[in-house]
Amino acid sequence: MPTAGTLSRARRVATRIGLRLIPVGAILASTALIATPAHAELVTQIRSWKTGRCLDSNFKGEVYTQPCNAPHTNRHQYWIFTGGHLKNDATGRCLDSNGDGRLYTLPCQWPNTWQDWEAQQGRARDVAIIQNLRTGLVLDSNEGGGAYTHRRNGGFYQDWKLGF
């Protein structure tokens, strides 16, 4: 269980990298912070609260959800929150979206506001809503493994848990 000092440090790091941390007990318990001299990163799986499937990607830039693998066994299911971007740990590509709701990865670009994301408080303390700051649309999914963005509608498919 994280200590109060760990949580304070995590909040400071998250603020610095553009991620708004929400009351986080269970979220931080299953994520890792990696600090380097130049910056800090939050590395985590992103799991649909409704389906239990993890956000995944491949080298072709396709984004979808798959059954979650045990922690640290599939780098395609790990995402790095860095500078407001979500970078896939395996491909090194950043989560990107367009106004039509398509979700994909492209090489990371700074600045590229289509690749800027923010985690916001969801309906419970360990639930996040992940919003694309350029489009205002939020990360959404379905039972078939689809991942896309959609306007915020209060549906459970838009609830995500950071970590396994």
From TrEMBL:
**Gene Ontology MF annotations:** hydrolase activity, acting on glycosyl bonds
Domain (Ricin B lectin): give its ranges.
Answer: 40-163
Which Pfam family, giving just one, matches this sequence?
Answer: Ricin_B_lectin
Q: Which SUPFAM superfamilies match?
A: Ricin B-like lectins (SSF50370)
CDD domains reported in the protein's UniProt record: beta-trefoil_Ricin_AH
Q: Which GO terms describe its biological process?
A: xylan catabolic process
Keyword flag Hydrolase: yes
Tell me which UniProt keywords the record has, alphabetically.
Carbohydrate metabolism, Glycosidase, Hydrolase, Polysaccharide degradation, Xylan degradation
Keyword set includes Amino-acid biosynthesis: no
Q: What is the protein's given name?
A: Xylanase
Q: Which organism is it from?
A: Spongiactinospora rosea
